[in-house]
What does this fold into?
Amino acid sequence: MSRLVIVANRVPDPRERGASAGGLAVALKDALARRDSLWFGWSGGTAPETGTEPRLLRKGRTTYATLDLGEEDYRHYYQGFSNAALWPVLHYRLGIARFSREDWLGYRRVNAAFAASLAPMLRDDDTIWVHDFHLFLMAAELRALGCRQKIGFFLHVPFPPRQVFMGLPNAEPVLLAMAALDTIGVQTADDAENLRGALQAVGKPEAAERVGVFPVGIDSGGFANLAARRFRTREVEMLRASLVNRALAIGVDRLDYTKGLPQRIAGFGKLLERFPQHLSKITFLQVAPVSRGDVATYRALRRELDEAVGRINGQYAEPDWAPIRYITRAVARPTLAGYMRLARIGLVTPLRDGMNLVAKEYVAAQDPEDPGVLVLSHFAGASSELEGALLVNPLDPDDIAEALDVALTMPADERLARWKTMDAAVRTTTAAAWARSFLTALEGEAAAASPSKAESRRATGRRGTSRRAA
Ligand code: ADQ
It folds into this structure.
């Protein structure tokens, strides 16, 4: 089988395995296990100038090739165009996007530099799969260098309606560059419709036809096992003991303005105000490690949350109960899995989200005998698959409060019935299924069909690496 070349802004650290590895590494695990692969992208480090010769590291059948970013390029390509312009626009937040020509030039420069550095490493029959909005121009740059391989692209975040995207001063060159792709994957039918509309508007109807929907998933069996095992550990036991029989609601997010955290805190405050019967009966644990702490919007968000949490705790806390526990440090994934299993409510209320894997992880983590309730934003991609969730408008604190009240009083048989439909969905659209269906679209049936070793082991009931790694 031909080699798979993954191109992504960040390359995972090959020393981190299984549960501790980054999201994309986990999602691609099965795809990478079945064939030789090259993973190319940014090392995560900076240097005076962006590198040209990638550092190579081989592990198993995968070679990791990384470049440092020059300090200017880090500022303009990463902090600037990717995080301050594309990220908000793609999440429908045109009003807070910051545009500058220097950032756009930096973005073009890095996409071109990555392509120039990757091109000499490519073999004629490689299949190239580019990930996410940092690298919209990559395929066009590779084509300009004469690369004729199949190139696919997956957008992990939403794609907004054409009228919103066109607010990006460089919308047109970005869309034109996407016409160089053979397969363009997005998370939901809405994203596909929006992207097709935008491609048609710039005169690329043939590219619009290459857009397909590939909802990303998790390793649901692996996560369920992890949660069940971690449930019995000291950390989870300590949390359980500290609740003193109160219900736990949990939120787990990167600290990002797309995740709807101030609105979520306000919704929880509304619950305490409007439904005082729950006072001292529920504890809300929000885990939100700081991300992009060097961007001003993110620092402002942190201050806003500190204040909101303090206000609600000050207003409602008792000497033996604080309504909100708020952690901005990272918590290890296995521990989070155990916490999710303990929580009666999973509170996942992004203002916009490509998919939101936390919603799926919460479902997978539940005890099948006594599952909790998922309160989920209409505006997360996951809402189209998880029909058993209580769907809310994340901008409306009253809606969140009412859903929390329903969740807290929901009879066990309804909880179970709702969870079963969600669990079936999460077990169907797994990470492995996502990668397989995308690669089938890109390469054709035959190339992507043979099962990986990990899948064969699972099918025959033998312990696979995902379980051991957890
Ligand atoms: P993210 O915006 O990072 O991903 P999400 O899909 O929710 O959002 O989370 C990714 C992973 O990070 C999950 O596995 C989650 O458990 C983990 N994580 C989140 N908060 C954490 C915390 N506090 N501590 C430890 N781990 C945490 C982008 C898009 C999403 C899309 C994914 C995958 O923005 O919409 O679902 O890519 O395509």
